[in-house]
Amino acid sequence: MKNFSKGVREANIENISLITEPVLPEVTSKMDLGRKPVKLNLKQGLTMNQILDVYALKNSKNNLCRNHSYEFAAALRAFEPWALKMFDSSSKIQSGILYGNLFEFGNYKQCISIYSNSQFGPIRGKHCSLKVYPDTFLLKKILSYKNISERRWDKVKIFVENATLDWSVCVPDSCGVNDVLPHFQKLIKGLTEGLNISVGLNEMNCLTQADIKDFTNTELLVIGGLIVYILMVAIFTLMDFYTPKEKAEQRPLLRIFSVKRHARNILAKNTKGPSDLDCVHGIRFMSTCYVIIGHRYLMMMFFPVINSLHIMDWILYYRSTAITGGTLCVDTFFMVSGMLVSVGFFEESSKNRVNWFMFYFYRYMRITPPLAIVVLWYCTLMHHFGSGPLWNDMLEVIQKPCQEYWWATIMHIQNYVHPYPLCLTQAWYLTCDMQYYFLSPLILVPLLNNDVLGYVNFIGFYLVSVSISFYLAWINKYNGGVPVTNQLFSTKYFQHHYITPHVRASTYIIGLGFGLVVFKQKGTHIKLATSVAVAGWMVCIATMLASLVGCHVFFLEEHDYNRIESSIYLAISRTTWTLGIVWMVWACINGYGGPINYVLSLHVFRVFGKISYGMYLLHMGMQYMMSGAAKMHGYFSDFSSLYAAFSDLFIMVIAGFIFTILFEAPLIQSLSLLTKKRKTVKATVKVQPLEKF
Length: 693
Prior knowledge:
This protein is mainly alpha-helical. It has two domains: 2-211, no CATH class; 258-682, no CATH class. Helices cover 65% and strands 4% of the residues. A hairpin with a 6-residue loop joins strand 2 and strand 3 (123-134). Helix 5 (63-77) packs across helix 6 (81-89), helix 15 (279-302) packs across helix 31 and helix 22 (428-439) crosses helix 26 (501-520). It is globular, with a radius of gyration of 32 Å. Mean pLDDT is 89; it is low at 1-33 and 681-693.
C-alpha cells in the first residue's frame, strides 16, 4: 500500500492528466508527437490541471480555437517558452480589490508578441479584458469595509455604480469573443456562486498584433498635406533669413509663413509701454494652467489606479476643493472674454461704424481653423499614437465622436447637438464662448445707444441666466458639488447644466458690463483710500474662497441634501467668483494691485498668453493618450497628480509654442493683413471724387 501511494505521488503528469481531464481522441497523438511533459509531483500536477482548467479554452465550439487551446495545454505542460509567456501574460487575482484595485492589466505587450508554429497553424497571442459587473448589494458590502454607511451611499454611488472588475487573459488568436466569454462566464460564476454578478466582453477589448492598423488613404492624404505645409513654412522661413528687412516687410507670404517672424513676435516685449490690461495676460495663463491641472486630476480618476476607493476619502478633505470647486476657473475665461469683446466693441464704435461682417467673420476665423486642425488630428491620426488594453475604450469616447460629429464642433453647436460624448471635450467652452460672442450685440448695442434701456436689458439677461441655472438645479435635484468622478461626462448635470450656454451665460454677461466700465474710465484712475482698497481685496479673497470651498459641505456624510441650498449655490457661486476676478482686474487697472499686478503683468505671462490657446486645444488629447496607452496601474494622490500635471504643463508649453508658430500665428497674420486691406480700400473709396463712381 505504501509503495502504491509513493508511486502515485511521483507519477508522471501525463498519467495524472489522463485521469483528471478529458482529451479529444483526434488530438491525443498530435499532442504527444515530439513533446514530452515535464515531470511534476502530485501537488504540482494538480495545480497544473487547475491552471489549465482556467486558462485553456478546451471546450470551445470553434475547432481551431479548441485545437490551439490543446496545443497551449500540452506546451505549458512541457514548459515551452511561448506557452509560459501566454500563461504569464494572463491576469491572476490581484491584491487590493477592497481598496479599489479593480483592473488587472496582465502583460499586453508580451501577449500580442507571442508567435509559435503548431500542427494546426500559427498561434499568436490575443489579449482580452473581461469585465465583471457586481450588483448593488455587493458594492455596498465592499464599501462597508471602508466604513461607508448606508446614509452616505447616495453621495458616493456615482463613484462606484458603474464600477467593474476587469480581468485580462491571453489566449490563442484563433479564439474569438464567442469562445472566450462563455468559458470565463462559466468559470467565474462557478467561483463566485452565491454572488449576483455578470461577466461581459466586447470585441474591441480583444486585441492582437494585427489590430495595429495601417494608414488609410485619408490618413496618408492628411500626412502628405502636413508634410507639404511644413516644407512650405520651412522654405519661407529660410527666405526670411536671407531677405533684407525692408523687402521682407513688402512680401505678405513671408510675413504669414515665416516661423522666425512668428517666434520673434511671440517673444518680443511690448514696445508701446505698459497697458492698463496687462494683468489679463497673467490671469488668462494661470487659468489655463489651472484647467490643465484639474484635467490631470480627472484623468487619474477616469483611468485605473490601484487605490480608486481612496478618492472617496480624499474628497472629504478641504484641499480637494481646489479641484472639485476649481471648475470656477472657466468662469474667469468667460468674464475676461466678455470684457475684452465689450472694450473692443465700444472702442471700434467710438471711431467708426461697426463692420458687422468683420465682427463675426474675424472671430469665427480666429477661433475655428486652429480648432479644426486639432479635430482633424482626432478624427484621423490619433489612434496611431498608442495601444493597450484601455486604448480602444478611450478611442470610443474621444475619437469616435469627432469622426461622427466633427461638423457640430466646428459649427460651435455640439453642446446642443451631441453633448455626450463630446468631440474634443474641452471644446465645450469654445462653443459657449462663440455663441456668447455672436449674441453679445443683444447687450452691447442697447448699452451703446441708450443708457437706461441698456442697463435694464443687461440686468434682465443676467437675471434670466441665473434663474435658468436655479430652475434646472431645482427640478433635477442637482447636488451643489460637481460630481468629479469617472462618470462626470455622462451625468445629466454635465450635459444639461454644466456645459449649456443658457446656464453659464451669467459670468460672460458680467464681463460685457465690466468692459463698458473699463472703456468709460480709460485714461483716468479712481482714487480710493488705502483702507477701502484693503477692504476691497479682503472681500475679493473672501468671496472667491467661499465660492471655491463652498462645495465641500455637499460631499460630507452628515450633510443632508437641501434642495434650495444646492440650487442657490449652483446659481450664485459662479457670480461671486467672477465678481472677485472683476475686482482684481479693476484694482490692477487703477493702481491698487500692488505685487499682484506686478506678477500678473510680467512679460513672461504675455509670452505664455500668446500660446495659451494652443495649450488649451492640445492638452486634453495628450492626457487622454498617455492614460489610454497605460500598461500598468497608476496611484492616486495629490503628489502624483501634481507631479504629472506639471509635466503636462512643461510639455504643453513646448507643444503650444510649436502649434502657435506653425498654425495659429500664420492664420492671425493672414486675418490682420485682410483687415488692413479692407480698411485701406474703405478709406480710399471715401476720398474718390463723385464723378469717378
